[in-house]
Amino acid sequence: MSTTFALLIRHGEAEGNREGRLIGQTNAPLSDLGHRQAAAVGTRLSALPITRIISSDLLRTMQTAAPLADLLQIEVEPEPGLREIANGEWEGRMPTEVAASWPDLWKRYGAGEDVSRPGGESWADVGRRAVATVQRLADTGDRMIAVFTHGGPIAQILRWATGLPHDTHVYTGPMGAMANTGISTISLPEVRLLGYNDVGHLAGLLRHPDTPFFG
After folding, report:
1. Which SS3 state, helix, strand or coil, does residue 62 take?
2. What is the pLDDT of residues 103-136, one digit of tens each?
3. What would you report as the CA-atom Rg of the chain, rounded to the nearest whole angstrom?
């Protein structure tokens, strides 16, 4: 079986990222900075032999994939399995609001426990669906695929690719966090991590210092 290279790209900065809002599966659009980041990563990736573009079906990821799709004249394939975590009753709230309404649960979450959001998902849920989605890419015969998704799914996919647990809290362990439009690369079906959080295209377009990495 031939090797497939999957380029995992986090979306550009979205509205609500900078203030730390738990946007999760909210259909938040890219900010002005996010659109510039998307254009930059699209230009960079357009030089590669990408034959397929897959994206979380949320607005901010589809908008991030659009410049590359336009340059390569490839249609973006929306994939719900690549969505960010479903925050349930936490959706769209600020951390201070969550801490006030669910103090015990938020304390456990802050201590590193992978709690399920009320009415939503846990990071383990995200890991299972994101990894299953990426595993299916090994059967397509494509040489290089661009995969636009979110910080949480990427963290869990990279944990899986390196043999780390991907059924736990994304903020724990050595993997770290993804920058907006950071590029990480894995190979399939022989799973290896080949590149991590590459932001070489973001000269002058790095995240605002107040922007969290996940969301």
Report:
1. helix
2. 999 999 999 999 999 999 999 999 999 999 999 9
3. 16
* Burial of residue 51 (number of CB atoms within 10 Å: 0-12, 13-18, 19+): middle
Question: What angle separates helix 151-161 from helix 123-135, to the nearest 10 degrees?
Answer: 70
List, by residue number, the catalytic residues. 11, 84
Cis, bond preceding 95 (omega within 30 deg of 0): no
Which amino acid, residue 108? R
Q: What is the pLDDT of residues 150-179, one digit of tens each?
A: 999 999 999 999 999 888 888 877 777 789
Name residues of the chain where pLDDT drops below 70: 1, 206-215
Domains of the chain, CATH where assigned: 4-198 (3.40.50.1240)
Cα 138 to Cα 204: distance, rounded to the nearest angstrom: 35
- Cα separation, 198 vs 181, whole angstroms: 8
Burial of 139 (0-12, 13-18, 19+ CB in 10 A): exposed
Two tokens, residue 209 = 């210092």
The phi and psi torsions of 117 (rounded to 5 degrees) equal -65, 145
